[in-house]
Amino acid sequence: MPTTLPAFADATASDSALRRFLHGLPGVDPVGLEARAAALGTRSIKTTAKAYAIDLAISMIDLTTLEGADTPGKVRALAAKAVNPDPTDRTTPRTAAVCVYPDMAATAAAALAGSGVKVASVATAFPAGRAALDVKLADVRDAVAAGADEIDMVIDRGAFLAGRYLKVYEEILAVKAECGSARLKVIFETGELSTYDNIRRASWLGMLAGADFIKTSTGKVAVNATPANTLLMLEAVRDFRAQTGVQVGVKPAGGIRTSKDAIKFLVLVNETAGEDWLDNHWFRFGASSLLNDLLMQRQKLSTGRYSGPDYVTVD
Questions:
Q1: Looking at residue 62, what is its pLDDT?
Q2: Which of 167, 251, 261, 264 is catalytic?
Q3: pLDDT tens digit string along 87-129?
Q4: How high is the pLDDT of residue 315?
Q5: Which of 11, 91, 242, 256 could pair covalently with 21 via S-S, beta carbons 3.0-4.6 A apart?
Q6: Rounded to a whole number, what is the distance in angstroms from the first to the last CA of the chain?
Q7: What local confidence, expressed as pLDDT, does residue 306 receive?
Protein backbone atom coordinates (compact mmCIF):
# COMPACT_ATOMS: atom_id res chain seq x y z
CA MET A 1 0.00 0.00 0.00
CA PRO A 2 1.37 3.47 -0.79
CA THR A 3 2.08 5.89 2.02
CA THR A 4 0.00 9.07 2.26
CA LEU A 5 3.33 10.96 2.51
CA PRO A 6 5.24 10.68 -0.79
CA ALA A 7 8.44 11.98 0.82
CA PHE A 8 8.61 8.76 2.84
CA ALA A 9 7.61 6.36 0.03
CA ASP A 10 11.04 4.72 0.03
CA ALA A 11 10.97 4.23 3.79
CA THR A 12 7.65 2.39 3.66
CA ALA A 13 8.26 0.38 0.47
CA SER A 14 9.10 -2.86 2.26
CA ASP A 15 9.49 -4.38 5.69
CA SER A 16 13.29 -4.09 5.49
CA ALA A 17 13.13 -0.46 4.35
CA LEU A 18 10.74 0.43 7.16
CA ARG A 19 12.96 -1.34 9.67
CA ARG A 20 16.01 0.59 8.46
CA PHE A 21 14.14 3.87 8.75
CA LEU A 22 12.71 3.24 12.21
CA HIS A 23 15.96 1.87 13.61
CA GLY A 24 17.78 4.80 12.05
CA LEU A 25 15.89 7.29 14.22
CA PRO A 26 18.04 8.90 16.92
CA GLY A 27 18.25 6.81 20.08
CA VAL A 28 16.52 8.08 23.20
CA ASP A 29 18.56 9.10 26.26
CA PRO A 30 16.32 7.76 29.07
CA VAL A 31 18.05 9.72 31.82
CA GLY A 32 17.83 12.98 29.87
CA LEU A 33 14.22 12.38 28.84
CA GLU A 34 13.04 11.64 32.38
CA ALA A 35 15.04 14.53 33.83
CA ARG A 36 13.48 17.01 31.39
CA ALA A 37 9.98 15.67 32.05
CA ALA A 38 10.56 15.97 35.79
CA ALA A 39 11.98 19.50 35.49
CA LEU A 40 9.02 20.72 33.43
CA GLY A 41 6.72 19.21 36.03
CA THR A 42 8.03 21.61 38.68
CA ARG A 43 6.72 24.71 36.89
CA SER A 44 4.42 26.69 39.17
CA ILE A 45 1.13 27.80 37.61
CA LYS A 46 -0.88 30.29 39.68
CA THR A 47 -4.09 32.41 39.73
CA THR A 48 -5.40 33.41 36.29
CA ALA A 49 -3.00 31.10 34.48
CA LYS A 50 -4.21 28.19 36.61
CA ALA A 51 -7.84 29.04 35.92
CA TYR A 52 -7.09 29.15 32.19
CA ALA A 53 -5.24 25.81 32.38
CA ILE A 54 -8.10 24.12 34.24
CA ASP A 55 -10.67 25.26 31.66
CA LEU A 56 -8.37 24.20 28.84
CA ALA A 57 -7.86 20.77 30.41
CA ILE A 58 -11.64 20.28 30.80
CA SER A 59 -12.11 21.11 27.12
CA MET A 60 -9.48 18.51 26.19
CA ILE A 61 -10.99 15.52 27.99
CA ASP A 62 -12.27 12.46 26.18
CA LEU A 63 -14.71 11.49 28.95
CA THR A 64 -14.43 7.73 28.92
CA THR A 65 -16.31 4.63 29.97
CA LEU A 66 -14.93 1.33 28.71
CA GLU A 67 -16.31 -1.32 31.02
CA GLY A 68 -18.10 -4.59 30.42
CA ALA A 69 -20.91 -3.32 32.64
CA ASP A 70 -21.59 -0.20 30.52
CA THR A 71 -25.29 0.40 29.89
CA PRO A 72 -27.16 2.87 27.68
CA GLY A 73 -28.20 4.75 30.81
CA LYS A 74 -24.62 5.12 31.96
CA VAL A 75 -23.55 6.37 28.55
CA ARG A 76 -26.40 8.90 28.42
CA ALA A 77 -25.48 10.15 31.89
CA LEU A 78 -21.84 10.51 30.85
CA ALA A 79 -22.91 12.39 27.72
CA ALA A 80 -24.98 14.78 29.83
CA LYS A 81 -21.96 15.40 32.04
CA ALA A 82 -19.76 16.03 29.00
CA VAL A 83 -22.17 18.68 27.70
CA ASN A 84 -22.78 20.29 31.09
CA PRO A 85 -19.97 19.27 33.45
CA ASP A 86 -21.01 21.61 36.28
CA PRO A 87 -24.77 22.34 36.41
CA THR A 88 -24.11 25.10 38.97
CA ASP A 89 -21.87 27.02 36.57
CA ARG A 90 -22.86 27.24 32.91
CA THR A 91 -19.54 28.88 32.01
CA THR A 92 -17.78 25.53 32.51
CA PRO A 93 -16.41 24.28 29.17
CA ARG A 94 -17.76 21.15 27.57
CA THR A 95 -15.43 18.19 27.21
CA ALA A 96 -13.98 17.33 23.82
CA ALA A 97 -15.58 13.92 23.41
CA VAL A 98 -17.21 10.92 25.02
CA CYS A 99 -15.32 7.67 24.41
CA VAL A 100 -17.21 4.36 24.41
CA TYR A 101 -17.19 0.87 22.93
CA PRO A 102 -18.61 0.53 19.38
CA ASP A 103 -21.93 -0.94 20.56
CA MET A 104 -22.52 2.21 22.62
CA ALA A 105 -21.57 4.69 19.87
CA ALA A 106 -25.15 5.09 18.62
CA THR A 107 -26.39 5.81 22.14
CA ALA A 108 -23.66 8.39 22.64
CA ALA A 109 -24.31 9.97 19.24
CA ALA A 110 -28.02 10.38 19.98
CA ALA A 111 -27.32 11.88 23.41
CA LEU A 112 -24.70 14.30 22.07
CA ALA A 113 -26.48 15.38 18.87
CA GLY A 114 -26.04 19.10 18.24
CA SER A 115 -23.83 19.63 21.30
CA GLY A 116 -20.47 19.89 19.56
CA VAL A 117 -19.08 17.13 21.80
CA LYS A 118 -17.56 14.39 19.66
CA VAL A 119 -18.28 10.68 19.83
CA ALA A 120 -15.08 8.66 20.10
CA SER A 121 -15.16 4.88 19.84
CA VAL A 122 -12.45 2.37 20.54
CA ALA A 123 -12.11 -0.31 17.89
CA THR A 124 -9.86 -2.97 16.32
CA ALA A 125 -10.45 -5.53 19.09
CA PHE A 126 -9.65 -3.08 21.89
CA PRO A 127 -7.73 -3.40 24.19
CA ALA A 128 -5.61 -6.39 23.13
CA GLY A 129 -5.89 -5.96 19.36
CA ARG A 130 -5.76 -9.72 18.93
CA ALA A 131 -8.06 -10.31 15.98
CA ALA A 132 -7.89 -10.84 12.23
CA LEU A 133 -7.74 -7.69 10.11
CA ASP A 134 -11.21 -8.20 8.62
CA VAL A 135 -12.65 -8.39 12.13
CA LYS A 136 -10.84 -5.18 13.11
CA LEU A 137 -12.10 -3.37 10.03
CA ALA A 138 -15.65 -4.53 10.66
CA ASP A 139 -15.31 -3.13 14.18
CA VAL A 140 -14.34 0.25 12.71
CA ARG A 141 -17.14 0.21 10.12
CA ASP A 142 -19.73 -0.53 12.80
CA ALA A 143 -18.49 2.33 15.00
CA VAL A 144 -18.45 4.86 12.14
CA ALA A 145 -21.88 3.76 10.93
CA ALA A 146 -23.20 4.22 14.47
CA GLY A 147 -22.06 7.83 14.51
CA ALA A 148 -18.49 7.84 15.80
CA ASP A 149 -16.60 11.02 14.88
CA GLU A 150 -13.29 9.55 16.07
CA ILE A 151 -11.82 6.05 16.17
CA ASP A 152 -9.28 4.97 18.79
CA MET A 153 -7.50 1.89 17.39
CA VAL A 154 -4.90 -0.31 19.06
CA ILE A 155 -1.84 -1.50 17.21
CA ASP A 156 -0.77 -5.14 17.11
CA ARG A 157 1.92 -4.97 19.78
CA GLY A 158 2.95 -8.55 19.14
CA ALA A 159 3.72 -7.76 15.50
CA PHE A 160 5.51 -4.55 16.44
CA LEU A 161 7.70 -6.21 19.08
CA ALA A 162 8.52 -9.00 16.63
CA GLY A 163 9.81 -6.39 14.19
CA ARG A 164 6.95 -6.87 11.70
CA TYR A 165 6.63 -3.14 11.20
CA LEU A 166 5.09 -3.29 7.73
CA LYS A 167 2.20 -5.41 9.04
CA VAL A 168 1.46 -2.77 11.68
CA TYR A 169 1.83 0.04 9.13
CA GLU A 170 -0.52 -1.61 6.64
CA GLU A 171 -3.13 -2.29 9.35
CA ILE A 172 -3.12 1.39 10.32
CA LEU A 173 -3.48 2.38 6.66
CA ALA A 174 -6.42 0.00 6.26
CA VAL A 175 -8.13 1.28 9.41
CA LYS A 176 -7.57 4.88 8.31
CA ALA A 177 -9.28 4.11 4.99
CA GLU A 178 -12.30 2.66 6.83
CA CYS A 179 -12.59 5.76 9.04
CA GLY A 180 -13.77 7.97 6.20
CA SER A 181 -14.18 11.44 7.70
CA ALA A 182 -13.68 10.19 11.27
CA ARG A 183 -10.34 11.10 12.84
CA LEU A 184 -8.03 8.23 13.78
CA LYS A 185 -6.20 7.93 17.10
CA VAL A 186 -3.55 5.20 17.12
CA ILE A 187 -2.90 3.62 20.54
CA PHE A 188 0.56 2.15 21.15
CA GLU A 189 0.11 0.76 24.68
CA THR A 190 3.43 2.29 25.68
CA GLY A 191 3.59 0.22 28.87
CA GLU A 192 4.00 -2.90 26.73
CA LEU A 193 6.60 -1.48 24.32
CA SER A 194 9.37 -1.83 26.93
CA THR A 195 11.74 0.91 25.73
CA TYR A 196 11.66 4.59 24.87
CA ASP A 197 13.26 3.75 21.53
CA ASN A 198 10.26 1.57 20.73
CA ILE A 199 7.87 4.39 21.67
CA ARG A 200 9.71 6.75 19.30
CA ARG A 201 9.57 4.14 16.52
CA ALA A 202 5.87 3.48 17.11
CA SER A 203 5.17 7.23 17.04
CA TRP A 204 6.80 7.63 13.64
CA LEU A 205 5.21 4.45 12.32
CA GLY A 206 1.75 5.67 13.29
CA MET A 207 2.30 9.11 11.79
CA LEU A 208 3.69 7.71 8.54
CA ALA A 209 0.54 5.59 8.22
CA GLY A 210 -1.75 8.61 8.57
CA ALA A 211 -2.68 8.78 12.26
CA ASP A 212 -4.51 11.98 13.19
CA PHE A 213 -3.50 11.40 16.82
CA ILE A 214 -0.97 9.19 18.55
CA LYS A 215 -2.12 7.89 21.92
CA THR A 216 -0.15 6.40 24.78
CA SER A 217 -2.37 3.75 26.23
CA THR A 218 -5.63 1.88 26.61
CA GLY A 219 -5.80 2.50 30.35
CA LYS A 220 -6.06 -1.26 30.80
CA VAL A 221 -2.46 -2.09 31.77
CA ALA A 222 -0.24 -1.29 34.75
CA VAL A 223 1.80 1.49 33.09
CA ASN A 224 -0.17 4.05 31.09
CA ALA A 225 0.52 7.72 30.34
CA THR A 226 3.60 9.17 32.02
CA PRO A 227 5.23 12.58 31.62
CA ALA A 228 8.28 10.95 30.03
CA ASN A 229 6.49 8.87 27.39
CA THR A 230 4.17 11.79 26.57
CA LEU A 231 7.16 14.14 26.25
CA LEU A 232 8.75 11.70 23.81
CA MET A 233 5.59 11.58 21.70
CA LEU A 234 5.31 15.37 21.73
CA GLU A 235 8.88 15.58 20.43
CA ALA A 236 7.90 13.13 17.69
CA VAL A 237 4.89 15.15 16.47
CA ARG A 238 6.93 18.36 16.61
CA ASP A 239 9.72 16.84 14.52
CA PHE A 240 7.26 15.19 12.14
CA ARG A 241 5.57 18.50 11.37
CA ALA A 242 8.95 20.16 10.87
CA GLN A 243 9.79 17.55 8.21
CA THR A 244 6.40 17.09 6.54
CA GLY A 245 4.21 20.09 7.37
CA VAL A 246 1.61 17.64 8.74
CA GLN A 247 0.38 18.23 12.29
CA VAL A 248 -0.59 15.21 14.40
CA GLY A 249 -2.28 15.26 17.80
CA VAL A 250 -1.25 13.54 21.03
CA LYS A 251 -3.48 11.83 23.59
CA PRO A 252 -2.09 10.61 26.92
CA ALA A 253 -4.56 8.19 28.50
CA GLY A 254 -4.77 6.33 31.77
CA GLY A 255 -3.52 7.35 35.20
CA ILE A 256 -4.06 11.13 34.90
CA ARG A 257 -6.42 11.83 37.80
CA THR A 258 -5.69 15.25 39.29
CA SER A 259 -5.68 18.86 38.13
CA LYS A 260 -2.04 19.12 39.17
CA ASP A 261 -1.15 16.22 36.87
CA ALA A 262 -3.16 17.65 33.97
CA ILE A 263 -1.46 21.02 34.26
CA LYS A 264 1.95 19.32 34.23
CA PHE A 265 1.01 17.71 30.91
CA LEU A 266 -0.11 21.05 29.49
CA VAL A 267 3.28 22.52 30.41
CA LEU A 268 4.89 19.62 28.53
CA VAL A 269 2.78 20.47 25.48
CA ASN A 270 3.60 24.17 25.55
CA GLU A 271 7.32 23.74 26.15
CA THR A 272 7.85 20.85 23.71
CA ALA A 273 5.43 20.96 20.79
CA GLY A 274 4.33 24.57 21.24
CA GLU A 275 1.17 26.64 21.46
CA ASP A 276 -0.26 25.18 18.26
CA TRP A 277 -1.01 22.00 20.20
CA LEU A 278 -2.77 23.78 23.10
CA ASP A 279 -6.18 23.11 21.61
CA ASN A 280 -8.48 20.11 21.87
CA HIS A 281 -8.17 19.54 18.13
CA TRP A 282 -4.55 18.52 18.78
CA PHE A 283 -4.31 17.42 22.40
CA ARG A 284 -6.63 15.25 24.50
CA PHE A 285 -6.70 13.56 27.87
CA GLY A 286 -8.15 10.06 27.96
CA ALA A 287 -9.77 10.14 31.39
CA SER A 288 -12.86 9.75 33.52
CA SER A 289 -12.07 10.69 37.14
CA LEU A 290 -9.84 13.62 36.06
CA LEU A 291 -12.89 15.74 35.24
CA ASN A 292 -14.18 15.58 38.81
CA ASP A 293 -10.94 16.92 40.26
CA LEU A 294 -10.77 19.69 37.66
CA LEU A 295 -14.32 20.71 38.56
CA MET A 296 -13.53 20.78 42.27
CA GLN A 297 -10.44 22.90 41.69
CA ARG A 298 -12.41 25.20 39.40
CA GLN A 299 -15.08 25.67 42.06
CA LYS A 300 -12.41 26.48 44.65
CA LEU A 301 -10.87 29.15 42.41
CA SER A 302 -14.24 30.80 41.80
CA THR A 303 -15.72 30.56 45.33
CA GLY A 304 -12.67 30.30 47.60
CA ARG A 305 -14.10 27.11 49.08
CA TYR A 306 -13.17 23.51 48.40
CA SER A 307 -16.45 21.73 47.73
CA GLY A 308 -15.24 18.14 47.95
CA PRO A 309 -16.15 15.10 45.84
CA ASP A 310 -19.80 14.95 46.99
CA TYR A 311 -20.48 18.15 45.01
CA VAL A 312 -19.72 16.64 41.63
CA THR A 313 -21.50 13.81 39.90
CA VAL A 314 -20.08 10.32 40.11
CA ASP A 315 -19.27 8.84 36.69
A1: 98
A2: 251
A3: 999 999 999 999 999 999 999 999 999 999 999 999 999 999 9
A4: 54
A5: 11
A6: 42
A7: 64
Instruction: In whole angstroms, give the CA distance from residue 63 to residue 295.
Output: 13
Sheet order of strands, 61-64 included: 249-251, 213-215, 183-187, 150-154, 118-123, 97-100, 61-64, 285-287
Backbone angles phi, psi at 68, to 5 degrees: -65, -20
DSSP string for the chain: ---S-GGGTTTTSSHHHHHHHHHTSPPP-HHHHHHHHHHHTT----HHHHHHHHHHHHHTEEEE---TT--HHHHHHHHHHHH-S-TT-TTSPPPSEEEE-GGGHHHHHHHHTTSSPEEEEEESSTTTT-S-HHHHHHHHHHHHHTT-SEEEEE--HHHHHTT-HHHHHHHHHHHHHHHTTSEEEEE--GGGS-SHHHHHHHHHHHHHTT-SEEE---S-SSS---HHHHHHHHHHHHHHHHHHS---EEE-BSS--SHHHHHHHHHHHHHHT-GGG-STTTB-EEESHHHHHHHHHHHHHHHSS---GGGS---
Query: Alpha-carbon distance 189 to 134, whole Å?
Result: 22
pLDDT of residue 178: 97
Is 185 annotated in the active site? no
Check if 81 is active-site.
Answer: no
Burial bucket for residue 17 (CB in 10 Å: 0-12, 13-18, 19+): middle
Is 118 assigned a catalytic role?
A: no
Q: Which residues of the chain have pLDDT under 70?
A: 1-4, 306-315
pLDDT at 47: 82
CB under 8 Å to 61, separation ≥6 — which residues? 95, 96, 97, 284, 285, 287, 290, 291, 294
Q: Annotated catalytic residue: which of 86, 149, 152, 293?
A: 152
| CA–CA gap between residue 14 and residue 223 (Å, rounded) | 32
Q: Which of 167, 176, 215, 264 is catalytic?
A: 215
pTM: 0.94
